[in-house]
Amino acid sequence: MALLAIMGRPNVGKSTLFNRITKSRKAMVDDSPGVTRDRNYADAEHDGVKFSVVDTGGFSKNDPDAFVDLIHFQVNQAIEEADAIAMVFDGKDGPSPFDRDLLSVLRPIDKPIFYLVNKIDSADLEYLMADFAELGVGELHPVSGEHGYGIPTFLDMIVKVLPKASPKLEEDMISIGVVGRPNAGKSSLINKILGQERLLVSDTPGTTRDAVDTVCQVNGKPYLLLDTAGIRRKGKVKHKLEKFSIVRALKGLERCDVALVMLDATEGITDQDVHIAGYAEERKCGCIFLANKWDLVKDKDWALKKIKDDVRMNAKFLNYAPFMTISALTGQRVHRIFELVDKVYAQYTTRISTSKLNRMLENAITRHEPPYHKGRRLKFYYATQVSTKPPTIVCFVNHPDAVHFSYKRFLINHIREETGLDQTPIRLLFRQRDRKDLKVLKSGG
């Protein structure tokens, strides 16, 4: 789709405008400057015209932010990709030397550029626009990202200059969430996959604050990559922006089909890695463990056995998740990630026929009889698969609450053996069914 880029100096309200235009809360909003660092994309629609919007980091030549050069690179990338640009000024603070810095970058650009004076909450405040005449940019448009003033008029103008959208791909895309501790190499991995500096990369933990969605094609097949902020221990999350980032990362897990749980191979699996893996397991998405920075490991044979054993021991609840070593820096085995993703996704979307499922269940309870409840053995009537992503099976039992977790685990493992679903979560639910005429599945008792 056509792309609108929103630009401006720090803290002029770009993210608020982004959220208003896209009718979302995808971009984080805070009073402190520098909240948005990566480019952040979302779709929008106005008057039947669909387009994409990108929110960029605040542009300032003399910004003390350690990431200023990377932010400038991201802004320039957005300019190159955009079909139209919205340059945002702060109506309450007036013109700034930082505005002139960005204007010097935009003046040579041969694309439609709209100059918005933000924080003009009503017609009574439009007199504040007079101060910006000295910038010599031509027509100025009063808007309020916070209250919506002037936004419909601005969007009317935007849809007239944007090129028409191309037909959207109908093919379903596998969504891949990239999660892990700060500085595990998540952004480096996505940049290696995309072949460009799509996301900020730094040795400083906490660089990525927003979750950023990116569509890519590998071997002609589209995938949706969800990059997320690094998740730290709750006790170490002091700044409210980092708390927002963690919430956003967890929401990314809820949206993904397959989670790439990234570990630092030089440190091995930590307690926090196990917690993050637990978040993925709770949300029942497919999972793949990636031990990154393998190029820095010296005794690889010993390290491989050690980290695999530690993963299986400490994250045994994800014993079905494949494990692979990679180097996002050198690209070692990165291409194989998508082979694994496809295999996991195929199992994640598997549907088992009801007849086959009940044969498996009958074999299972014959092999290992259900436990007793109040002196009487539990009765299993029948089972059916109700959904995929992951395969979700409901067993009708006379006393659902009496099924012990160990017997539930036995049934899940039996289903894995019979179906070959060894790389996907399986959700097994128990429901009450009291009808006397239902045939009870046979057991050895």
From TrEMBL:
GO BP, one annotated term: ribosome biogenesis
Short name of one Pfam family for this protein?
Answer: KH_dom-like
Record-annotated EngA-type G domain positions: 2-166, 174-349
Q: Which domain of life is it from?
A: Bacteria
Provide the binding site for GTP 2. Answer: 180-187, 227-231, 292-295
Subunit details: Associates with the 50S ribosomal subunit.
Similarity field:
Belongs to the TRAFAC class TrmE-Era-EngA-EngB-Septin-like GTPase superfamily. EngA (Der) GTPase family.
The record, for NCBIfam families, names:
GTPase_EngA, small_GTP
What this protein is called in its record is GTPase Der
Q: Gene for this protein?
A: der
